[in-house]
Design goal:
By secondary structure, the protein is of the alpha+beta class. It has two helices and five strands, in the order αβββαββ.
Length: 113
């Protein structure tokens, strides 16, 4: 009878330890698992000068780079109160006179005065 009593005590102790280890491992892995947002890389595009009066490309691509690099490399500084200056496209050979429609912020650089 004493032997059975000791076995029961040991089984309860072993199961208790297993639960403690399992719960502590679960809490350690569940904390701090928030995924950070991946950094969005800008695409390298072909940047075409635009005639704001006609909303059309006015020459061949002047730059092939990311928007940030192009803004830093020329006079159009992306002033939100000014008309479009450069249009960004993945197409390396847009014909002069291509109507650009309404480009997104990522595909346009606005004039700066």
């Amino acid at each position: 009878m004493n032997l059975i009593h000791n076995i029961k005590k040991n089984i309860v102790a072993v199961l208790g330890m297993a639960m403690i280890i399992g719960l502590s491992a679960w809490s350690l892995t569940s904390e701090g698992t928030e995924k950070s947002k991946p950094e969005v890389k800008q695409a390298s595009m072909y940047w075409y000068p635009v005639n704001p009066a006609t909303n059309q490309t006015s020459s061949a691509a002047a730059f092939h780079d990311t928007k940030d690099n192009v803004v830093n490399a020329q006079d159009c500084k992306d002033d939100p109160n000014e008309p479009i200056c450069l249009y960004g496209s993945t197409n390396p050979s847009l014909p002069v006179g291509t109507n650009i429609g309404t480009p997104t912020d990522a595909n346009r650089i606005l004039e700066s005065h």
